[in-house]
Amino acid sequence: MDYSELVYKALEARKKAYAPYSKFKVGAAVIADNGEIYTGCNIENASYGATNCAERTAIFKAVSEGHTKLNAIAIVGVEKDYTYPCGICRQVIAEFASEDMKIVLGKNSGEYIVKTLEEILPGAFTKEDLKK
Ligand code: THU
């Protein structure tokens, strides 16, 4: 599967990052199971704690438009290395992940690696656990 377009969209979203405090800009792009793509950037706040990560911005945009099953998410932070999602974002990804969810970590649209949810969040606590 070629994720270069999804990574490119994450790179474009990164340009909109509002990160005046950390200066660490992140972009994300999710593809829902109907093929629709939603993008997001990190949005910081003077209170620091109210900051929203790029991944959650993109995911919440998808969910608020009615798409709760996501097939893949691309994430781009610094271009010299891969940026993995933070712990809270991993948990949010788990909530809306399709069976075969892919986490795509990009440096640029031509250089990316693909991870599964099990690889980045082994033993995730999910809605299935609530049924036990
Ligand atoms: N950040 C993200 O947007 N995604 C991540 O997975 C890691 C961290 C943002 C939050 C904050 O604005 C900045 O990067 C530094 O932590």
Describe this structure in words.
This protein has 132 residues and is of the alpha+beta class. It has a single domain, classed as Cytidine Deaminase, domain 2, CATH 3.40.140.10. It is 27% helix and 27% strand. It has a five-stranded mixed sheet. The N and C termini lie far apart (35 Å). The model has no long low-confidence stretch (mean pLDDT 97). The chain binds tetrahydrodeoxyuridine (THU).
Summarize the model shown.
With 132 residues, this protein is of the alpha+beta class. It has four helices and five strands; from the N terminus they run H-E-E-H-E-H-E-E-H.
Strand order of the largest sheet: 2-1-3-4-5
Please provide the ordered H/E string of secondary-structure elements: HEEHEHEEH
Q: Average pLDDT, to the nearest integer?
A: 97
What name does CATH use for the topology? Cytidine Deaminase, domain 2
Q: Give the low-confidence spans.
A: none
How many beta-strand segments? 5
Rg: 14 Å
Strand coverage percent: 25-35%
**CATH class categorisation:** Alpha Beta
